[in-house]
Amino acid sequence: MLRRLRRALRRRAFEQKLSALPALLEGERAAEAESEAEAALVIGEEVFGAEAAELTTPLYVMAAARLSAGRTDDALAACTRAIRIAEALAGAPTEPRLPKLYELAAAIHERAGTFDETIRLYRRLLAGYERMRTPDEAAIADVAGRLGLLLGKQKQAAEAELLLGRALSITERVHGARSRPSAEVLYNLGTVLAAAGRRDDAARSLRRAIGILGEHAPRPALLGAAQHNLATVLEAEGRAEEAEAMYREALATYEASTDHEHADVRPTLVRLGHLLVAKGRAGEARPFYERAYALAARDFGVDHSITAGIRAFLDATAPAP
């Protein structure tokens, strides 16, 4: 009787800890989330056993919290254990479901720079979603888009374009052609096409993304990035006046946000400075280099190579004595 009561109390304690985990993760309280998840795991192992389905939730939270802290090895250990438990259950439901565990594992591998494993996991996820009796189109589009973007970064442009094109077609059907998700896919497609040297196609995709994003509530990071990338395409085509105007639009987008000195601003400041120098306007370039230098010093320290590089640009544009 006492043993049964103790088990019931421990089970309740486990459930209480689980219920608190989502809020901790969403509130970016990674250290607390990891600590509570570890405590829940200990209780879960005691109540349910070391290979029980119930353990996948605390293991998932532990992995996510460790990833947010940059501890990829520890994150992968927790995620791998959760996947092993879920796979051994042969289709029995777990929370989170196995696809979500694969997604987290892919994110961990991508952060760790093990891209071959990341690509393998995304391919496995995509195949799994496609085999479902009632395919989840939104999930297929999401994974196809992620895989396409990753392949683009690995210089596999042809397959990347096919996957991103598929993701765009599905996303437009599911969410609408003028939706924010469609704009995000267009941005990724434009970025991949630009890297592959397909500047005209890249510019079209990026302009479409910018037009759609302008219709929705502001998301400065994405809109500013799209404007920045379009500016680089225009600059590469020799359209310096249009490029300058677009770099300035990107800066205005960032500066309108609450965090106008975000790290994302630095590359735009540097590129605009370079463009102005190339146009013989070094004096105008200096304030942009100065802002970029301050951001780099804040984020990397004054001795970092990025900071030193911007310092060199500043020195090169110093007025003659």
Automatic annotation (TrEMBL):
Report if keyword Isomerase is assigned. no
User: Which Pfam family, any one of them, does this sequence belong to?
Assistant: TPR_12
- Chain positions of TPR repeats: 183-216
Q: Does the keyword 4Fe-4S feature in the UniProt annotation?
A: no
What is the name listed in the Swiss-Prot or TrEMBL entry for this protein?
A: Tetratricopeptide repeat protein
Which keywords describe this protein according to UniProt?
Repeat, TPR repeat
Q: Which SUPFAM superfamilies match?
A: TPR-like
Q: Which PANTHER family match?
A: NEPHROCYSTIN-3, TETRATRICOPEPTIDE REPEAT PROTEIN (AFU_ORTHOLOGUE AFUA_6G03870)
Instruction: Note the Gene3D superfamilies from the entry.
Output: Tetratricopeptide repeat domain
